[in-house]
Design goal:
By secondary structure, this protein is mainly alpha-helical. Helices cover 71% and strands 6% of the residues.
């Protein structure tokens, strides 16, 4: 039986319960610090071999940029360009893990365009989505998906967690 076949027997309740416990545990371990929580999750993904040792610093940097942009400590447009470049470099190498690609892709998508110009102007700026839950939930989703479905479940969990986090950030 493949790892994804075993995943199909698990109900939504079990996943919700596991996700809730895992996020609470991580946040307690991080002392409520979201950036620290994100790094804990990334380290766990590397420990579980869902991301590589070489991908860990790239994803950590993406995470740091997002938190800095949200906190006003880094220009969001520049952060977006750096995150997009890091994601594209993962893609071009051709050997990136599916989890790293899902995490990085979600991070790129967490920046939104906005009207930064004069009325009627065409200037577009990027800002980071509100609360940075996209990265936290993408990572937690990958860990939880990996527990249930191996590497394939981790990649799906990262994608779903990233989407849910983006929704939470934008609401």
């Amino acid at each position: 039986m493949s790892s994804l076949e075993s995943f199909s027997g698990i109900g939504v309740y079990e996943m919700q319960s596991a996700a809730s416990r895992e996020v609470k545990r991580i946040m307690a371990q991080a002392g409520g610090d979201r950036l620290k929580a994100d790094k804990i999750v990334l380290a766990k993904l590397q420990e579980l071999d869902f991301i590589t040792e070489k991908e860990l610093p790239v994803l950590s940097h993406i995470c740091e940029l997002g938190h800095a942009a949200t906190g006003g400590k880094h220009d969001a447009a520049k952060a977006y360009q750096e995150v997009k470049k890091a994601y594209e470099e993962l893609l071009v190498k051709g050997n990136a893990s599916p989890v790293a690609l899902a995490y990085a892709s979600g991070a790129v998508g967490s920046y939104v365009s906005g009207d930064g110009g004069e009325p009627g102007g065409s200037t577009v700026v990027f800002k980071k989505s509100g609360g940075n839950w996209q990265g936290t939930l993408a990572g937690a989703g990958a860990v939880i998906g990996g527990y249930f479905g191996g590497a394939g479940g981790a990649a799906v969990g990262a994608a779903i967690g990233g989407v849910v986090g983006k929704i939470v950030d934008d609401c």
